């Protein structure tokens, strides 16, 4: 049976999926490469739309249906919101990039397993502790819920970065505003600019994890750093060379990479660039019965 529409499950609420503060990542899991190029990652055509079920059905009220791929989209209603999705998968988490357009009907997406939402471009509304909250470019939501939808009467182009990663401690739903998060230059130590490069970081802090937006300018490198946990990075703009352990590759806007736990990492800045990063701690092992 291959139904063209699938009911998206209810959004995850404020539940810590992985680990505890005392359980730091003690090993890394292998990948063929820590760099996941956008050009090698399928762009999947998607559609979502709302329906209202009435009568003696198993579920009544509003719900969101989804279609994926050209064959299913051909059967989606004309008023469905259409967008594209790219999913980048690592052993400890995923980064998913959704691109909505005004011509495609704006923004509509049922939140399911996503644990962190970064509004890269545009505006939308999403649940924060069960309350529909307006967000705009530069805002971050930890543990979003409900339906991500465009602001009423305002269809526009939008780009959303959704992480499904763990938290190192119990966490709760919260929005951190970009306007309240100022960039600070890293003047020395790990990750600081070297040889003409400058690194400024906006840090979005919340319980159990954080999001960092880094802005790199000038020409040079960054001082090596050795992360204690995996870090998932989405390059928003620019072009750089990344070294993770023994692997060195050039990456550009749209690519995703993993700074692997316990491996020395540094950047060579080829042009002014920016990226979004968050920790992806190792899933906690299940307790013995």
Number of helices: 1
In the CATH scheme, the class of the largest domain would be: Mainly Beta
The CATH architecture of the largest domain can be named as Sandwich
Secondary-structure-derived class: mainly beta
Q: Into which percent range does the helicity of residues fall?
A: under 10%
The value of Rg in angstroms is 20 Å
CATH topology of the largest domain: Jelly Rolls
Average pLDDT reading: 88
Q: What's the number of domains?
A: 2
CATH superfamily of the largest domain: Jelly Rolls
The N- and C-terminal alpha carbons lie at a distance of 37 Å
- Largest β-sheet summary: 9 strands, antiparallel
- Which ranges are low-confidence, i.e. pLDDT below 50, for 5 or more consecutive residues? 1-23
Write out the strand line-up for the largest beta sheet, numbering strands in chain order: 1-4-3-5-6-13-8-11-14
Order of helices and strands: EEEEHEEEEEEEEEEEEEEEEEEEEE
How much strand content do the residues show?
over 45%
Number of DSSP strand runs = 25
Overall shape: globular
Ordered list of secondary-structure elements with their pairings:
Elements: E1 6-7, E2 35-36, E3 44-53, E4 61-68, H1 70-73, E5 81-90, E6 93-100, E7 108-110, E8 116-121, E9 123-128, E10 131-136, E11 140-142, E12 145-149, E13 158-164, E14 174-176, E15 184-185, E16 193-194, E17 198-206, E18 209-217, E19 220-222, E20 230-237, E21 239-244, E22 247-252, E23 256-259, E24 265-269, E25 273-280
Antiparallel strand pairs: 1-4, 2-23, 3-4, 3-5, 5-6, 6-13, 7-12, 8-11, 8-13, 9-10, 9-12, 11-14, 15-17, 16-19, 17-18, 18-25, 19-24, 20-23, 20-25, 21-22, 21-24
């Amino acid at each position: 049976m291959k139904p063209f529409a699938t009911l998206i499950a209810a959004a995850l609420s404020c539940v810590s999926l992985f680990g505890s503060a005392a359980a730091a990542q003690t090993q890394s899991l292998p990948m063929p490469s820590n760099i996941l190029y956008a050009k090698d990652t399928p762009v999947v055509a998607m559609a979502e739309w709302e329906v209202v079920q009435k009568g003696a059905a198993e579920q009544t009220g509003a719900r969101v249906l989804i279609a994926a791929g050209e064959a299913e989209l051909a059967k989606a209603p004309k008023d469905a919101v259409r967008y594209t999705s790219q999913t980048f998968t690592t052993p400890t988490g995923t980064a998913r990039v959704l691109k909505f357009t005004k011509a495609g009907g704006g923004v509509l997406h049922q939140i399911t397993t996503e644990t962190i939402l970064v509004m890269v471009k545009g505006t939308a509304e999403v649940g924060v502790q069960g309350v529909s909250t307006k967000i705009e470019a530069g805002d971050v939501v930890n543990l979003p819920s409900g339906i991500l939808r465009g602001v009423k009467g305002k269809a526009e182009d939008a780009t959303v970065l959704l992480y499904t990663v763990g938290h190192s401690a119990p966490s709760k739903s919260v929005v951190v505003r970009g306007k309240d998060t100022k960039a600070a230059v890293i003047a020395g130590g790990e990750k600081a600019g070297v040889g003409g490069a400058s690194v400024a970081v906006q840090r979005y802090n919340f319980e159990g994890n954080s999001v960092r937006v880094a802005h790199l300018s000038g020409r040079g490198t960054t001082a090596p750093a050795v992360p204690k946990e995996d870090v998932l990075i989405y390059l928003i703009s620019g072009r750089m060379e990344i070294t993770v352990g023994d692997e060195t590759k050039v990456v550009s806007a749209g690519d995703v990479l993993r700074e692997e736990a316990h491996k020395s990492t540094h950047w060579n800045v080829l042009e002014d660039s920016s990226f979004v990063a968050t920790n992806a701690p190792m899933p906690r092992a299940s307790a013995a019965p």
